[in-house]
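Example (one chain per record):
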Amino acid sequence: MNRYKLLFLIVLLIAEFSVAFGQDSLSHYLEVAVQNNPGLKADYLAYQAALQKIPQAGATPDPQLDMGYYLKPMDIIDGSQVADFTLMQMFPWFGTRRAAQTEAGHMANMEFQKFRETRDNLYLSVYTQWFILCNLKQQLLNSRENRKYLEQLEALSVRRFSSPSGSSSGYSAPASVSQSITPSSPAGGMNSMAGMGTSSSQSIPQNNSMTSMTSSGRGMSGMNSNSTGMSDVLRIQLEIIELDNTIESIQSEIKAEKAKFNALLNRPAESEVIVPDSFNKIPFNLDVPSAMSKISAQNPMLGMINQEELAYKAKQEMDKKMSMPMLGVGLQYSLIKKRMDMGIPVTDMNGMDMLMPMVSISIPIFRNKYKAQQKESEFLQQSVREKYADTYNALGAELLQAKHQLENAERQINLLKKQTELANTTYNLVVQEFVTGKSDLADVIQVQRQLLDYRLKQSEAVATYNTMVASTQRIISFKENNE
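Predicted structure:
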């Protein structure tokens, strides 16, 4: 597989992810992760290096050149032999180089499957961090919205605190207002009746005592109302302070999770990550029989094991070919110097260089080594087949566990959705009752906390469900995930 085909495959996979998950910004970050992640680059370069072993495995052995020079020329009949040059080329048995290339090709495919596995794990990490950020963003928005509710509730409490006792809202009047309503006429009446009889003078103190008791009762009632209204305001302010601390904590956590997300993309930790304000549950239907067939055909771990078995099979074939003789052809050239001594008869070949074609053949008579090599490859194939079955079973069990978890997560989402709707309706009713004085602040705060808790749990459940969908897609392999 050449580089352009690989890049086209990656672009196609990213396009499929964006359709399946419906996240434009997420597909952009997936593309950035593919281009920048150092771990993925390392595995891709290892795959490229493995491809270079294919021509090495199928190469013809280098020819061998032997050169010899006689320090003292060796006399022969028609001259003196000065030097010898021998060139020899060996050839493996027919099909050996092809089997070696096949083995190297399968080893390179193993590196590619490892690259795919790293890529799928990278995608899963990006998806996981993405939905963590989406969940935190949703929690931040829910907390801010809850703070607005508390501010509105605080305004209602302040209004209740400042309302007169005679208002239609049913709130008790403050003590200052109650005291101003009490007239000073009883004291004037007592002075004007000072000269009356004993019976009249005895009834006057009794009326004065009743008046003071009435005035004191009104003052205590106003004081209780005043204290209750002020405590409601303070309790709401305590809730706002606690919520502000929660918001700051969420913002700090978002910053830390963005740093992790940027690390996957090999970007600076402070780089901006655009996260949508809302996210929904990913539509996903898991058909286990269909998914198992896709796992068998697409999962990179199983693909790696398949390529490993094919590599050992090719190696066994290569070992068998190597147990056959190797053939060699060569040429020997001898440099001859003319004989100068005229006393010895010479022929026309005096001083003529000699050229001798040669044929070489290896004789593999020690067979135990070759038999052990073939037996080794056979055992390795059996081992890989067992490893394939074990991995396939483990992936099947993991898929069934994922289906169970997805169903539970979906039920949890539906439950929290209903609870949120009921809590929202309850909150509106209890606020109205609080305004009319039929319920106290503790009821409102309890329902409001419950509503916020349901919203946060619902957001977290959706994020968990989406992450589990991505994890399930990794088991199947992200390839062709919309089929």
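Caption: The longest strand covers residues 64-76.
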